Amino acid sequence: MAQNLLALYNIALQAMGERSLDSTTENRPVRREFDKIYAAGNGAIPYILEQGAWNFATTRLSLASSTGLTPSFQYSFALPLPSDFVRLLELSTSTGMTDPLIEYDREGNYILSNSSLAYLRYVSSSTDYGGTLTNFPETLFSYLGHWLALQVYPTVKEPRVTYESLKAKADMLLISARQKNAAEQQMPFPEREFATVDHRELDYALEMLPALAAVTRRQQ
Question: Nearest 5°: phi and psi at 74?
Fold first, then answer.
């Protein structure tokens, strides 16, 4: 399946039991709602990229201290984040990411640190990585379509599905996308302690517990 805007809108429509679009210029109120939601704020793609440590959207680079900003106290250096930065995954003082940078703060678009050089692994909105629909894994692309359906659901006059069932399907797609993403990740060697930045990925499982409980209750 071609992963483009038309396919995305049609996934959303099918999830709601509505007729598909023939084009992204078709004169239908729901299409105009999709356009508004997709472009709102920084756009739908950066929002979806924030929801996980997506391998397809991950890259790394070195951060050097800025000559235009010096922290007022505590830290000696301010390291500017790249313009395509979405979500921080790892900071290290080594190119192999084996020595985590433990003591730092993020303020604005800077990493404050006592190290003048750090190596950043992050989720990127660059079109080479997460910033284009064609790079999305299939399950995550389907989740984005269902997420769009949830956003326009209040504007549908006579919906053919309930909001609860639509949300349950979207939640399960997000869980599945995260599980598949995690299965592709290499286990770090040597093993890292729980106290390192790796514990961040636990939030995915914890935040989905209510959704899983709701599905279980409906099946009983």
Answer: 70, -55
Give the burial string for 151-175 (b: 16+ CB within 10 Å, else e).
bbbeebeeeeeeeeebbbbbbbbbb
pLDDT digit string, tens, across residues 136-170: 999 999 999 999 999 999 999 888 999 999 999 99
The number of C-alpha atoms within 13 Å of 118 and in the hemisphere containing its C-beta is: 28
**Confidence (pTM):** 0.82
CA distances from 214 to 144, 208, 209 (A): 21, 10, 9
User: Is 170 in contact with 177 (CB distance < 8 Å)?
Assistant: no
**Where in the chain does DSSP place strands (E)?**
58-64, 77-80, 85-92, 104-107, 110-113, 117-124
Residue pair 98/92 in contact (Cβ under 8 Å)? The answer is yes
Pairing of strands 117-124, 110-113: unpaired
Ramachandran region of residue 49, left (φ > 0), alpha (ψ -120 to 50) or beta? alpha
Cβ partners under 8 Å of residue 50, min gap 6: 86, 87, 123
Q: Do residues 148 and 9 lie in contact, with contact meaning Cβ atoms separated by under 8 Å?
A: yes
Residue 182 CA, chain-centre distance (Å), reads 14
The string of pLDDT tens digits covering residues 98-145 is 889 989 999 989 999 999 899 999 999 999 999 999 999 999 999 999
* Of 123, 107, 100, residue with least CA distance to 198: 100
